[in-house]
Give the backbone structure.
Amino acid sequence: MNLAYHRLARSSPKYRWWKPLVTGLIAFGFFLFFSLVVVVALVVVTFVDPTGLGADFEGLITEGVIDSTIPSVLAFSLISIALMLPALWLATLIMGPRPVGLLSSVTGRLRWGWMLRLVLPALVAFAASFALYLVVLPPLMGEPIPTPVAGPNLWLMLTIILLLVPLQATAEEYVFRGYLMQAIGGWLKHPAFAILLPVPLFMLGHLYDIWGLLDVGVFAVFAAWLTWRTGGLEAAIVAHVVNNAAIFIIGEFGLVDTNTTEGSPVGVLVTAATLGLYSWFVVRLAARHSLQTTREVVEIQPPADPAIVGSHSQLD
């Protein structure tokens, strides 16, 4: 039989309905442990260098406010999210299914060549989106076009963004479009359940207003649909990395406020149009390259009852 991506948990002959739940609990335990290590390191740093790095983290420690314009705080927040990835992989190594690469795609691995083909379409789609948002819409709404001004820590921030954003975005995709889609897909066959049910959880992980949450929800739906449609996380990972990296980079030039928690109806529409264009590119490329979107699994028949076999032999 052929299994779509969201049904891959059932590719294991040892699949049981409760195993995804245990996997999630184990992953959460690993994540808490890794997070504790990072927090302890943060506390030590604040004591060793109270006027330097300690001052950078004062707002985070005393008020719980993440200021992503501060290099050390941005690095800390990205690493804190990226820790979900090793936590999930370790839990999957313990509980299955095997190979662990089934979290990545129907081929049992991350398809790097396919990912590279998606970078240009993602750059085109998101460049058009930000051009629309920053250059076309402001005059139509009676606002000036923002002027780029480089931040004081430009090169350090660009280094942090390019190194850590891919890890942060990939970790979120493995959890919300990987683990959760396959956990739900193991219980419910129709892909709509696996695509839509994790969306509220993804939205709750972001501290935005209603329009910002809807913006995140639109991204989650498109990312999950692409994951199901292409049989792997690659398209969602590329879109997530390009989107987040672009926001932080243009934020370093003062074109957007990376600390804002407010969205807008226009932002939701722009996000939907951007991801619609990107999805069109992805589907066309997948068809052109005959991308594998399902996994063939051989069904193992249960052993025959020896008593029944014996009775049939006697009749013969």
Observations:
- The longest helix spans residues 154-187.
- The chain has one domain: 2-298.
- The chain has 13 helices and two strands.
